[in-house]
Amino acid sequence: MTDYRVRAGDIEEDQVTSLIESYSAQLPSSFYLCAAGGSIVASLIAKLQGKNHNALFFGQWAAPFLLLGIYNKMVKQHGSDAIHTNTD
Length: 88
Fold this sequence. Notes:
The structure is a single chain. The chain is mainly alpha-helical. It has a domain at 27-77. The protein has helices at 15-24, 29-48, 52-59, 62-78. α2 packs antiparallel against α4 (62-78).
């Protein structure tokens, strides 16, 4: 049976991904949490004002902000590419 799993260091990330991660890793994790909370608050305010379409739009941004925060945290902890990690 063939093993198709990808192991750490098997495939390198491209330079575009590394560039994006180098900039996004400079933001603290609390930025993404506050952005998610801000979108929830904006959604609540829009809902209370009767602007249901805007409330839905703002509310849908909470999950992507939280996912970006998780990705940011993983890059900070594990690096963007396992092949380039320092094992000294």
